[in-house]
Specification:
The protein is α/β, with parallel strands linked by helices. The protein is built from ten helices and nine strands. Helix 4 links the parallel strand 4 and strand 5.
Length: about 270
């Protein structure tokens, strides 16, 4: 029975992936940070692991228990919304720690187990790493970094027989927008220069739920790709996952920025 470790399984994409891989016969190890989420995963029949992906010592302890690992899915992440200069470097550092640095940390810890099985690393990125939008700069930058490090890891791990696949979801039906909205509300205040544009900030935090694809449909796409003899380098799945990168590639930059500024209330002067 092949095994898979999936990070960030408390809800949304992570939980849908855990369900899909379990139904396909994988021995699923599902991680979450909060004890109640770990308990829920255990009750659902998964090998539940309490794990903070930013805790290097905990990662090392967990990895030392592993013999071989067939599939590692780096899914843990969140979306920090709001003006870049309101959040500043502190918010950006938090975003990168979870969305970017943890991918390197988790993969590094489990590399010996992946190497023994000639396994597969799956990094969950986003189309936001390709089509950059206002009021999501830290998130977009983190997912652009995921794209770059996935390409680098793919080449660097090739001599060891370890493959790397990046997944760029579009709009998926999860709690992402609710959580992103909560992040945005923490920054929106009357002292911000962007206070008059607060409805545009809120609109961006909810944009990921524009006609979303069900999470189980997305998870089935990922499972199908993983099970291929030669998994693709890049998988795009979910509403907008193909159209938005196409727009970013083909539309003149000035036109694209004009459209996005209008969409999120950035026309005019303050």
């Amino acid at each position: 029975m092949p095994n898979v470790l999936i990070t960030g399984c408390s809800s949304g994409i992570g939980r849908a992936l855990a369900d899909a891989f379990k139904a396909a016969g994988f021995d699923v190890w599902a991680s979450a940070r909060r004890p109640d989420d770990v308990a829920a995963l255990g009750a659902a029949g998964f090998n539940a692991v309490q794990l903070d992906v930013n805790d290097s010592a905990a990662l090392q302890r967990l990895a030392e228990q592993w013999g071989e690992l067939d599939v590692l899915i780096n899914n843990a992440g969140y979306g920090a919304m709001g003006p870049l200069l309101d959040g500043g470097t502190a918010a950006m550092q938090r975003q990168f720690e979870t969305n970017v640095f943890s991918i390197v940390g988790v993969t590094q810890a489990f590399f010996p187990a992946l190497r023994r099985s000639k396994g597969l690393v799956v990094n969950i990125g986003s189309v936001s790493g390709v089509l950059v939008t206002p009021f999501a700069g830290a998130y977009c930058a983190s997912k652009a970094a995921v794209h770059a490090l996935s390409d680098a890891l793919r080449m660097e791990l090739a001599p060891f027989g370890v493959r790397v696949m990046e997944v760029q979801p579009g709009a998926i039906d999860t709690r992402f927008a609710k959580n992103a909205g909560a992040q945005a509300e923490l920054l929106i205040n009357e002292k911000s220069p962007w206070w008059p544009l607060r409805e545009g900030i809120r609109a961006r935090s909810q944009a990921s739920q524009d006609k979303p694809t069900p999470a189980n449909v997305f998870a089935a796409d990922v499972l199908n790709a993983v099970q291929q003899q030669q998994p693709p380098r890049l998988l795009r799945s979910g509403n907008g996952s193909r159209a938005l990168p196409w727009m970013a590639a083909l539309l003149p930059k000035g036109l694209l920025e004009t459209v996005l500024k209008k969409r999120f209330g950035l026309k005019g002067n303050l």
